[in-house]
Amino acid sequence: DEFGSVSGSMTLPSDRLPGRYTLQISEPADGVYYSHPINVEEYRQPSFEVSLEEQTGAYALGDDITIHGVATLLTGFPLQDAQVSYNVTRSEYIPYWRSWLRESETETIVRDTVKTAKDGSFSISFNACYPEHSLHRSFEYSVDITVSGTDGEIHPVSTRLLISDESAHLDLNMEENYIDNATIKLSLRNLQGTPI
Fold first, then answer.
1. Reported pTM
2. Which own/partner pairs from 176-182 qualify as long-range (CB within 8 Å, at least 24 positions apart)?
3. How far apart are CA 196 and CA 146, in angstroms?
């Protein structure tokens, strides 16, 4: 059109294999040559899903932590005896307003594999150990999990835990801006912000 844009549609032949294709547009008279890669993949409806329980505990450095999850077939039945690979890493927690000063180093704490039980559940345990020679007080533990079905289908899930030398914090909220007759609400939360 007059703005230099082009649109259209096409259908790939059904006998072609999935892979990387290239869409090429050329107008030799104007010296215009353009190409763009396209990935064509076979759509497979997922056969199962993975969910993790919310972390409601109050954890401090040095505590043993267990992450619980479940793999369920879309038919509602549990995914039994599936391989669950996990990787737990630790990095110094740096608030966003200080993150431009330096990057945090990431260290692998544990990498292992477990299997789902008959009810599709699995548990991953690790120790939130305090690193040697560190002056830092707060760390982010990243738990990356991949569940593999028997047919090769995989589902990655992950969770992050902020863990410090203090396991919880107390929130104090006043509904009014003055002290006389003010209602004060106290709440105890873990470092993820979940009420304890």
1. 0.65
2. none
3. 29
